[in-house]
Design goal:
The complex is a heterodimer of chains A (322) and B (247). With 322 residues, chain A is mainly α. Chain A has 15 helices and two strands. Chain A has a two-stranded antiparallel sheet. Chain B folds into two domains: 1-75 and 157-164 and 187-247, Rossmann fold, CATH 3.40.50.300; 79-155, no CATH class. Chain B has helices at 41-48, 71-76, 94-104, 111-124, 140-153, 170-185, 197-203, 221-226, 228-235, 238-246, and strands spanning 3-12, 15-25, 30-34, 56-61, 64-65, 79-82, 158-162, 189-193, 206-211, 214-219. A six-stranded mixed beta sheet of chain B has the order 6-7-8-3-9-10, with helices on both faces. Chain B has a four-stranded antiparallel beta sheet with strand order 2-1-4-5, covered by helices on one side. The chains are: A mainly alpha (322), B alpha/beta (247). The structure holds adenosine-5'-triphosphate and magnesium ion. Residues 12, 15, 17, 35, 37-43, 84 of chain B line the site of adenosine-5'-triphosphate.
Chain lengths: 322, 247
């Protein structure tokens, strides 16, 4: 396939690869922690972009897959001694299956109705987990310290978690690109532009949307498991934070939806901004409000996002910014 | 037989848009569909290609009952359509628009084969030099051509053309009429809605006339224009009558 030859294919992958490598070589715990948070958002926003950017369906429920998949993965590794890698895959698989089932129901809804339904799903998931005894109910689950031993102690376990997150992020970026440049992806973009016209041309929209929802939900499940393992515990309040869904949306829109590089740029920019806002005495309690205003401004004035704007402005750099 | 429509009725709330419509379309022919504004022509297309399910009646396409199948299933069986109100995929390029038709149409081509097919279809409708532009940036005449190219790229057995000549100037009309004859030359059967009478009379083998959702005439173009019932239907609409009688 000639997609391998596109510079736009290699640039996002190379960036993430180099980033992880630098952190590994530096070998500092604080640098790793900062990078973990940022990389987690890059992966969350990129996986959301597979649904939002390619099909145009705005989901506020992305964090549900992070929460439920993460809970399940954490449950397996803390209560059933699964190893981290398999538990993360299982967490992702649970999220994917759930998305498949949910998708068949809610993806019939269009536009604002779909978006509203996904907010409902977030609240329902939180209520379910808070009352689900195997997951520890309202108190959640903890990992036994002995669990870290099999990875050679807590320090090494944290590095391993970071490496797995790094690999997962590379995988999201790779999948984003492959979907975008496939026949399947062309069908998704047709749905985004005009779903009825796409169907008249033969695009099986209900199936294509459900598959996309499933792919997009797999990664948050994996990332959730890694994140909760790193924290050593999971509780309902941590797992289903609606504001993280909203922030992921802002990141995708900020960088440019439908572009592989867009959510990466958006996540890094937004996190930088957020870091500044949280330390500034005036904005410290207002960062979500600022995010909302930001979202509004982007939608009104730069609907293509930062990377999209650059692509529109300078056609020559297009092939570097996919 | 390419298409058989039998006893089709379609309601929108209190509005009876189609009443007991039946007709047949033989392979390789061009059938014109005319009628005053709001007669139900576009609705008939929507029922034929699965956008709407009729309350009554059947649609048989190449011997298979396709009534109630979703539009994408109908498309994959070899029926393509150009919309009256153009529906370009704005943020995709003109070539990508046409590739969607090729990838998901009757033959379901791979991406690379679809790119080749798209260029053929774009040449056929005279849009090839615009392939790299965003579809949203085309003018209306070009968007109509894009609709046709997307439909053609699917290599359909039957193509539904909904007023592809509307709003075009005489030289553009002549160009598209040539394209339409070329499509028939490829062996594709055509069902076309048209208000430009001269064009319908020129290219159609047979003509159907809808009025208030009822099929009031079917026959050779000349028979239909001479039919008193058809003239009366158009008399309710002075502008249409002038067009009908003037040409
Ligand atoms: N989706 C819909 N919902 C409700 N009413 C509809 C719908 N589509 C069409 N109609 C109504 O059905 C009738 C037939 O409309 P249709 O578009 O089929 O007419 P037409 O013959 O194509 O007219 P024109 O020549 O203006 O394109 C009209 O009264 C129209 O308002
Ligand atoms: Mg019409």
């Amino acid at each position: 396939m000639r997609t391998w030859k596109l510079p736009g294919f290699w640039i996002p992958l190379a960036l993430v690869f180099a980033w992880g490598l630098i952190i590994l070589i530096m070998g500092q715990d604080t640098a790793r922690e900062t990078a973990f948070t940022l990389m987690m958002f890059v992966a969350m926003a990129s996986s959301l972009n597979i649904l939002l950017g390619y099909t145009g369906y705005v989901s506020f429920g992305h964090i549900v897959f992070f929460g439920l998949g993460g809970y399940f993965g954490f449950f397996l590794l803390s209560q059933h001694d699964w190893n981290l890698f398999l538990a993360a895959i299982a967490g992702g698989a649970l999220s994917a299956v759930l998305a498949g089932l949910l998708g068949m129901a809610v993806l019939r809804l269009r536009g604002a109705y779909f978006a509203l339904a996904t907010i409902g799903i977030n609240e329902a998931a939180r209520a379910f987990v808070s009352n689900f005894e195997p997951f520890g109910g309202a108190t959640g689950l903890f990992v036994n310290f002995a669990a870290y031993e099999r990875y050679g102690g807590a320090g090494k376990a944290l590095w391993l978690t970071f490496i797995l997150l790094w690999v997962a992020t590379l995988a999201v970026v790779l999948v984003s690109f492959l979907v975008k440049h496939s026949r399947f992806g062309l069908g998704l973009m047709a749905i985004r532009e005009d779903e009825d016209a796409a169907m008249v041309m033969g695009v099986k929209a209900p199936r294509a949307k459900t598959i996309t929802f499933t792919i997009s939900a797999f990664f948050p499940g994996v990332i959730g498991t890694l994140y909760f393992f790193k924290n050593g515990n999971v509780e309902p309040g941590d797992a289903f934070q609606l504001h993280m869904s909203i922030e992921s949306l802002v990141m995708v829109m900020l960088g440019g939806q439908g572009l592989v590089l867009g959510p990466m740029v958006g996540a890094v920019t937004y996190q930088g901004l957020r870091g500044y806002l949280l330390t500034s005495p005036i904005f410290k309690d207002l960062h979500l409000a600022v995010a909302g205003v930001f979202l509004l401004l982007i939608i009104l004035f730069v609907p293509a996002g930062a990377v999209g704007w650059v692509r529109g402005r300078f056609p020559r750099v297009r092939r570097f910014l996919e | 037989m390419m298409l058989q429509v039998t006893g089709v009725s379609k309601r929108f709330g209190g509005l009876q848009a189609l009443t007991d419509v039946s007709f047949e379309l033989a392979e390789g022919k061009i059938m014109g569909l005319i009628g005053p504004n709001g007669a139900g022509k576009t609705t008939l297309f929507n029922v034929v290609n699965g956008v709407f399910e009729p309350e009554e009646g059947k649609v048989i396409f190449r011997g298979e009952d396709i009534t109630g199948l979703p539009s994408y299933e109908v498309a994959r069986r070899g029926m393509a359509r150009a919309h009256q109100v153009v529906r370009p995929l704005h943020e995709l390029t003109v070539r990508e628009n046409v590739m969607v038709g090729a990838c998901y149409g009757r033959e379901g081509l791979s991406l690379s084969a679809a790119a080749v097919r798209a260029d053929e279809a774009l040449s056929q409708v005279g849009l090839i030099e615009r392939g790299h532009m965003l579809a949203g940036s085309l003018n209306v005449a070009q968007k109509k051509r894009l609709e046709m190219a997307r439909a053609l790229a699917a290599r359909p057995y039957l193509i539904l053309l909904d007023e592809v000549l509307a709003g075009l100037n005489p030289s553009e009309i002549d160009a598209i009429l040539d394209t339409i004859r070329g499509i028939r030359g490829q062996g594709i059967t055509i069902l076309m809605i048209e208000h430009v009478m001269q064009a319908v009379m020129n290219v159609s083998d047979r003509v159907l006339v809808l009025d208030y959702g009822v099929l009031i005439a079917e026959g050779l173009p000349q028979e239909v224009v001479d039919n008193p019932q058809v003239i009366e239907a158009y008399l309710g609409d002075p502008e249409m009558t002038a067009r009908l009688l003037g040409e």
